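Sat 14:20. Reprocessing the chain from the morning session after the first attempt stalled halfway. Input below, unchanged.
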Amino acid sequence: METQETIVTKRSLSLNVALMAMCAGLYAIGSFITSTIPSPWGAGQFRPAVIIPALFAVIAGPFPAGVGAALGTLIADSAKYGRIYEGSLLAAVPGNFIGFYLFGLITKKFTWGRFVLASNVTLTLANLIVATLYVTLFKIFYLAEPKYLAFSSEAMVAYILGLTIWWFVTMLPFVLIVTPILVRAVSMAFPSLVPEDVRINSLKNELPQRTFSLALLVPGIIMVLIGLIITLTPVGSQMIAFFKEPTTILVQGMFYISGVVLTALGLLMRTRRIMKFTKS
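Finished this time. Tokens:
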């Protein structure tokens, strides 16, 4: 006869599997919708759907979010290419798993400050892992593509960092602005599924405006400065030598546009209190 502890453990396992499947399915659908919007670097895609595994990392914990993100990205990439996509297996799957597992670990004892920390750390680390594995393991070692084999070490580093930065600046506003709204909505609709500290912070505590504002302002200002460096220093000429002029212009525009948007959102959040949560 099953003990009460065994029944609770089975229920917990079943719930985790269900949450994992939901995370994977929603992330796959969201990622596939924007899969045709490429980065200026000619690789990688626009992916605001990262709000899905970020949400599950907060409400379900590290493992459901990590596995859900890994499976979701594989499904989306494979659907796009019509086969099990090797680039996703070698780069996106491990990067997404590590990133959103870490997100869940950081927010395990939930506060909004930890959420901001997790957003920045996860998006930096996960995107760096994906970009590095995509270029080195997939493009160079697995496919041996001549274009990538011809990269100098400087060009390879620039390409990897460029992909990482582009993903980071296009994902961060969605995670910081949309995910808290989703966390609050889930806390209200399904309180029994949400950890107590998440429920208390999302329903009763206001978002720390200064923290969220700085989390957008600082990357925004850095993006603008990088754009100016490309424009006003020999870095721009070096990039043209590596990637040709059209790509360099696109990348330069990316830094300016992303920087201005992030800075504007940070200032708007600070001055107009657009993300104020009312206390229950």
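The CA atoms of residues 9 and 101 lie 21 Å apart.
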